[in-house]
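ligand=magnesium ion
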Amino acid sequence: MKRLVILGSTGSIGLQALEVVEALPGEFQVVGLASGGAREDLFAAQLERWRPSVAALTLPDAARRAARAVGREVLPGPEGLETAASWPEADLVLNAVVGFAGLSPTLAAIAAGKDVAMANKEALVAAGPLVTASARAKGVTLLPVDSEPSAVYQLMVGRSWSELDRIVLTASGGPFYGRTPADLETVTPEEALHHPTWRMGPKITVDSATLMNKGFEVIEASRLFEVPVERIEVLVHRQSLIHSMVVLTDGVVLAHVGPPDMRYPIQYALTHPRRPPAPWPRLELGTAPALTLARPDPGAFPCLRLAYEAGRAGGSLPAVLSAADEVLVEAFLGGRIGFLDIPRGLERVLSGHRAFEITALEDARRADAEGREAARAFLA
Ligand code: NAD
Ligand code: MG
């Protein structure tokens, strides 16, 4: 039995991970659960169901209330999350926290020698080289959970990276595919939250509408696989059945195909290096729709270009981009700015930033704080 800690257990990925655990009896023991605190009743119910040996909620009030409700210890604050991430009993930590808050528990898990299944892309965007170097130094495995990097990872298993010419990440195109910049000026948060193929948390859903999510995945894949961003291409694939492709040195293209169901990549990351049968609905190839591929429109979706620029420059820029995006997405969801103010604000924040190297968690924290502050200045 693999002993598992799930960070972000009340979110979209966390809940689907618990479905995977439930569906594969005898594979896992849940030894730790942690979350932010917004859905404390759900978290309390999870504690009763799974009875983990460690539990943590970042919001101290929520931790106190959940502890009282279930009559057990619930560790408060970001330190609680780090304690859960480095829990001695754990073999594998699934990091499904959203945002920069996922970085310190990632480093804590690695420092404690735990393998980490990474859904939290913001940590890899903000401090990818630091995370991968720490993992290498500790000899721990980082397994991607995000469907596109998971697809690339699976395609490259048993293959030498010297055979890789380039990576092609697929993008659904989001709810606003085909719109002009003029159309996008007036779209609402409700429209942005209506993703055509995936059901996800609100932040990543808005990032999917701006294509910032795909931009983050370019940086995420570049850091995880140590491939320069110039060798990572993005193509819009509306059906979300091809989860990504690799082009090999002889020009042969390998594609990873399956239903748009996150339980597949979650199950792969949790059961790696095994591949037990999956109970999830399968793709009926004979009745699958025609598969299309197209280049993204750089005029309507400038976030993609900004991510390439930040990813190429490296240092603190990706962390600043990611932090500013968290602030601007929240402002958009709160109705305080328009959809296109997200790329406008990001452009302003990046151009005003004086870059520095990120060699420790403190550097990433400084970049994150500067990105947030610059985004708030833009909002004001
Ligand atoms: P979500 O909003 O549904 O859930 C987020 C989880 O993080 C919740 O459990 C919440 O309590 C927790 N959290 C939030 N702030 C926290 C904090 N400060 N400290 C501790 N916990 C905190 O988000 P999601 O859609 O599940 O996404 C989680 C991560 O996975 C994101 O980085 C996202 O980009 C990535 N991801 C998600 C999907 C998907 O299908 N949902 C796909 C690929 C990648
Ligand atoms: Mg993805």
